[in-house]
Amino acid sequence: MASRGYILLQISLLLTVATTAFSLSPYYYKNICPEALPTIKKLVGAAVYKERRMGASLLRLHFHDCFVNGCDASILLDPAPNIDSEKNAAANQNSARGFEVIDQIKAEVDKVCGHPVVSCADILAVAARDSVVALGGPSWKVQLGRRDSTTASRTQANLDLPSPFMDLPALINNFKKQGLNQRDLVALSGGHTIGFAQCFTFRNRIYNATNIDPAFAKERRVTCPPTGENTNLAPLDPTPAFFDTAYFNNLVKQRGLLISDQELFNGGSTDNLVKSYSLYPEAFWKDFAKSMIKMGNIKPLTGNQGQIRVNCRKVNY
């Protein structure tokens, strides 16, 4: 008869296997479909080459996915009788984009793999990394093995996605709810070194803020009048097609476009980090990569949870 100690050891080992069997791994597709990641990289590179702004859009999709019930591709689901699409949430409506690129990637990846084995959630995570790299930014090993949700929540998206009008305490609390700290907040906000924002998101700042460079405010008012033209675009930093530290340099000069941007350098607890990133690009790159991995680990569906969608826009039935 086995000793009590041996039995306890076996139980302990089984519990360890049970808790780690479905953990994410950068090598998840190595044997299942080795061509998956190179295919995603190729298609993201082509999409960004065609339109540099697409890199920011794909990065944002992953961010907006993870902040609503975890990284589960819920943001990709179209409205349906039982799906209250997150695409209609305030932060996404007429704003989130890149869905067609994800559709194209999904179709091509399923083709090279022979059948649907790569989740839409993993495609979002890899496409975000490859977009940053395509725009000259850092790379990192994306943790893989997520599965796709069968639900979406516009209500949760409205509650959990950070607003461009938030002050620093609200931003800190918003990220804390996702298990992210102040360093993650500042590093991930550095994603605003690429892309654009719509006039309605920064109008109040350029006309009413006191913590803004007057010349910068005047420059932005040219294409964002006091009323109307809500969808006119402005770059989030002077080099929106390159992943660099111009975003942080701008904040130090009080030239942040959004209220939520400038709040990171406004006499608060994140000032030193902003200044550090503006001076040391390597520190920003390193922390951005770490925070992206951390964000990508927010409540993933693994194992038998969720499903691998055939069409990223629809639940499999």
Automatic annotation (TrEMBL):
Xref: SUPFAM superfamilies: Heme-dependent peroxidases (SSF48113)
Site keyed Transition state stabilizer: positions: R60
Residues making up the signal peptide according to the UniProt record: 1-23
Annotated disulfide bonds: C33-C113, C66-C71, C120-C312, C199-C224
GO MF, one annotated term: lactoperoxidase activity
Chain positions recorded as substrate binding sites: P162
Annotated residues for binding of Ca(2+) 2: T193, D237, D244
Domain Plant heme peroxidase family profile: 23-316
GO cellular component: extracellular region
Biological process, per Gene Ontology: hydrogen peroxide catabolic process; response to oxidative stress
Subcellular localization(s) per the UniProt record: Secreted
Known catalytic reactions: 2 a phenolic donor + H2O2 = 2 a phenolic radical donor + 2 H2O
EC number: 1.11.1.7
Cofactor annotation: Ca(2+); heme b
Residues that coordinate or bind Ca(2+) 1: D65, V68, G70, D72, S74, E86
Manner of cofactor binding, per the entry note: Binds 2 calcium ions per subunit. Binds 1 heme b (iron(II)-protoporphyrin IX) group per subunit.
Lineage top rank: taxon: Eukaryota
Protein task: Removal of H(2)O(2), oxidation of toxic reductants, biosynthesis and degradation of lignin, suberization, auxin catabolism, response to environmental stresses such as wounding, pathogen attack and oxidative stress. These functions might be dependent on each isozyme/isoform in each plant tissue.
Similarity section: Belongs to the peroxidase family. Classical plant (class III) peroxidase subfamily.
Name of the protein in its database record: Peroxidase
Organism: Herrania umbratica
